[in-house]
Amino acid sequence: MREEDRQKFVQLANKRVSKVLHDLQLIGNLSNRSNYNYTDEDVAKIFRAINGEVKACRKRFDLALNTKETSQFSLDD
């Protein structure tokens, strides 16, 4: 791996993860019942969407990591 690729990954990951964490804090602010009216179903929909996207993102990383470990296949016995 080139050092420039690593540096770019770290730079972008720091920026993007920080933004996601900040946005999650803002979503958490919506829990204030004195300012907002919401249902349990609203909350469930929010977290289903968030959890679904986190799982999809994790799967992409897992797949990318596993592609380096290719299995050997041969019809010859």
Could you write a compact summary of the structure shown?
By secondary structure, the chain is mainly alpha-helical. 70% of the residues lie in helices and 0% in strands.
Task: Set out the fold topology.
Blueprint lengths: L2 H27 L10 H27 L11
Describe this structure in words.
The protein is 70% helix and 0% strand. It contains 2 helices and no strands. The protein has helices spanning 3-29, 40-66.
Task: Give the radius of gyration.
Answer: 20 Å
Largest sheet: none
The secondary-structure class comes to mainly alpha
Instruction: Tally the beta strands.
Output: 0
Mean pLDDT: 93
Can you tell me the residue ranges where pLDDT is under 50 for at least 5 consecutive residues? none
**Shape label:** elongated
Query: Which percent range describes the beta-strand content?
Result: under 5%
Provide the succession of SSEs.
HH
Quickly count the helices.
2
- Cα-to-Cα separation, first versus last residue: 36 Å
Helix content: over 70%
Keywords:
77 residues; mainly alpha; 2 helices; elongated
